[in-house]
Amino acid sequence: MADEQKKFLNVSANPHIRDSITTQKIMLYVIIALLPATAFGIYHFGAYTIAVILTTVISSVLFEYLYEKLMKLPITVSDCSAALTGLLLALNLPPEIELWVCVVGSFVAIVIVKQLFGGLGQNFMNPALGARCFLLISFASRMTNFAYDTFSGATPLAKLKAGETVNTYYMVIGNEMGTIGEVSVIAIILGACFLILMGVIDLRIPASYIASFTVFIALFGGHGLNSYYIVGQLAGGGLMLGAFFMATDYVSSPITTKGKIIYGIFLGILTGVFRVYASGAEGVSYAIIIGNLIVPLIERWAPLKCFGYVKPEKGGK
Amino acid sequence: MKANSPAERIFNGIVKENPTLVIVLGMCPTLAVTTSAMNGIGMGLSTTVVLALSNLFISLLRNVIPDKVRIPAFIVVIASFVTMVDMLMEGFTPALYAQLGIYIPLIVVNCIIFGRAEAYASKNGPVASFFDGIGMGIGFTLSITVIGFIREFIGSGAIFGQPIGNLADYMPSIFVMAPGAFMVLAFLITVRAAIINKMEAKKGVRLNVTHTDEEGAYCSGCAFAANCAGKLQKEAKAAAAAKPAATPAKPAAKPADKAEAKPTDKAEAKPADKAEAKPADKAEAKPADKAEEKPAEKKEEVKA
């Protein structure tokens, strides 16, 4: 049967959903939404970042293809999810990272975190973040070597933690040190607006994440309602990138509204705990992968209602 | 191979019921000390010594130890051997002793040793138990040495403590940390299962744990006996046969197992008193008329 005919003669159980949205389209929307941050990263850190981004994207797609070929699975490279994972991974790497580290990261993301658990839709945590944490633990010095204009130094978040002054205006624009994709808050928000307008991501996770993080920082950050400190914490590090692009990953976040809000609040508190009490300055990636792990628990508590399910009245049998 | 013979026990410990990769016991040392291959060998061999000797002694004492206090009794036996090994290692291999640290005294509570004492040595003769301990110990040593070797090579770019150039700079050091242990262990379990299943399919030999083995007596040494589908089927069958209605035993839901379809000659030929000393599952595999005589007593025995 031709594909055209299939569309009309498709016999399946209800509810019948007719929509033109596909996995490929969603992935492409997210990639488009990441372009401002990517472009800013390339502009800000120089041409070498192009090599980093291309390496992670190409090697991610290649690993996906090779694994599926080797395991005799249907090839799903065309759904762009591997390319998106590669791009997200690149945006989470420092600009002067060596290229072989990128390849190792892509391998971990695609083969270990995603394919070994069953491929797209089955991964228990965000592949890009899983790979980033793997690299962060394995190659600590390489992964925290942030350089900018051949001058390497601490990220604004580390400075903030050490009590030094930071320029919050530069942090919002992105004229600072950090990983390729996280520096410019404006570019990230621009992409996030596009995703929200297209209906790809739900505002609930990032909103509850950022709100609960702000409250946590105000309460326990040690600086009270000091707006300078709070803005610095919000604009610094991977919070924005994580909240809009990582925490909202369909596979590893809860489905229900209630679940999403609990998840967001949990992430906010966890990030705050890591940033305030842990030895490192950054905690977004660890917070999100730990959040990913407790998603099954959240979903048990906030389960998806079955289609047509009516809650039995209390008191009745 | 004859059931419970030394060679069979050793083969069982290494391949069929490998304590690390099949029964997944003793995870604490498996995950914690395997940062290098040498650590794996040291840990494995010291555990093997304790395992073999404690199995032997517990088997010798199995008719003396009252059932209700058997766990404390096992601990005393095991702890004595661990103390000996601990002191000997401190004296003769101080470097390795320092490296393994707390994990040597912790062999006392290693669940492989407990598991074998409870599941095997307390029910079988001393020779078989001793070789069971040797087999399990070798299986454990091999597994954790391989885990240690892989972790050492990938994590710190060294083989048996010898660094290879400056390879360490290019290796993901996460593998010598906790997450690497889990990854390598999972990888090895998968690889072992894949290889064994392929060999089974190809050569038609039994390399996985089976509970309806023609050789019989397998349940006696099996760590999975408590909730084994094959055993439960047998019990259901025995219970059905024991009913006063005297209807022929219904075939179980899946009559795939050979031994179930036709009771082995061995089990049938054995006199009742001899069979009684052996664990209950075997007795239950017997034809219905014999099992009918004392099912109640045996159930009690199992529960206690």
CATH class of chain A: Mainly Alpha
Which word captures the global form of chain B? globular
CATH-defined topology of chain A = Ammonium transporter fold
- Count structural domains of chain A: 1
Number of strands of chain A: 2
The portion of residues forming beta strands of chain A comes to: under 5%
**Sheet with the most strands of chain B?**
2 strands, antiparallel
Measured between the Cα atoms of the first and last residue of chain B, the distance is 32 Å
Question: Do you know the CATH architecture of chain A?
Answer: Orthogonal Bundle
Class per helix and strand makeup of chain A? mainly alpha
Give the oligomer, counting copies of the same chain as homo and different chains as hetero: heterodimer
Query: What structural category characterises the helix and strand content of chain B?
Result: mainly alpha
Helicity level of chain A: 55-70%
Strand count of chain B: 2
Explain the layout of strands and helices.
The complex is a heterodimer of chains A (317) and B (304).
Chain A lengths: L2 H7 L13 H23 L2 H23 L10 H11 L7 H16 L12 H12 L1 H4 L3 E2 L2 E2 L3 H7 L5 H6 L11 H13 L6 H17 L6 H9 L3 H8 L10 H21 L6 H18 L16
Antiparallel strand pairs in A: 1-2
Chain B lengths: L5 H11 L10 H6 L4 H24 L9 H23 L1 H7 L10 H11 L4 H31 L1 E2 L2 E2 L14 H26 L25 H14 L15 H4 L3 H5 L2 H6 L2 H5 L3 H6 L1 H9 L1
Antiparallel strand pairs in B: 1-2
Helix pairs in contact in B: 1-7, 3-4, 3-6, 3-7, 4-5, 4-6, 6-7, 7-8
